[in-house]
Each structure stands twice: as C-alpha cells, then as structure tokens.
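Q: My labmate handed me this sequence with no annotations at all. I'd like to see what the chain might look like in three dimensions before we decide whether it's worth expressing. Could you predict it?
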Amino acid sequence: FRLSEEVVEGRAVEVFWDRQRLQQGRDFQRDFCRALASCRVVVPVVSLSALARMHHLHAGSPVDNLLLEWTLALLLHRRGILQACLPLLFGAQLPLDVRPGSRQPCVSSLFTTGGPADLPDVTCHQLTATVRDVLEGLAAEGRGGKAEGVEG
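A: Here is what I predict for the chain of 152 residues:
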C-alpha cells in the first residue's frame, strides 16, 4: 500500500516525504519551504520527542527546521495557500502491557504529558526572518500576498 498510488477524486495523491525528495547538496530550507508552499494539505507530526527539542530555544537560537515547518504550515493555512493543516499529535510511548490483550505499543495523549504546557514563550529572531523571507518570495511569485503577520 502506497498513499501516492491511491486515488482521491479521480487524481493521484502525491506525497512529499522530505527524506526521499530533498536532494543532498541543495539548499534544504529553500527547497523544503517551496515544497511546503506547493502542497494542498500538510500533516505535521507533533510528538513529545519533537517538542523536547524546543525547550532550549531562545531569542538568538538558530533556525530549527522542524519549528520552521510548523510555523510556515500554520501561516500558509491562514493565508489560504494550504487547504488544511492536520497535525498528528503523539505523547509518550507507553509500555506494551497497558492495553489488556494487546502486544502492540501504545502512545499517550500529547496533552496529558505536559509537553505543550512546558514550552518557552519566546520568539526566535532568525526563524522569524526566515519565515518572512519565504513569504516575501511567495508574494514575489504571486502566491500568498505580503509577509504580513510575521512578528519579529
């Protein structure tokens, strides 16, 4: 089963998987942001592990590509460039014996683990500048309007 071979409303679904699509030696951020802006639907994976790396961010932090993806996806959705942003939320992995009769691993709710509540309230200036540059580039191409709504 491959999602890209499934048909939705008479058209094939093309899946962008960064590990397969992004080419070594190219500008990762530029290519990734352009690919994200060409999508109709984005399904970001938001896990407790992914959030853990955000705990150390501060105003002078370098651009975190995962946070760049999430930020850009939300802004593109707000501007109507993306039809939907449907995050998959995963908490901590639980022991195998949590569910009676099951031998499969189970994952808790992200919101019962405290992950989102513990995040710092900080604006990373380099990330903001990168998002603004991407949005201005899209506006120059006639996609997405001005880089408004990006605070820095």
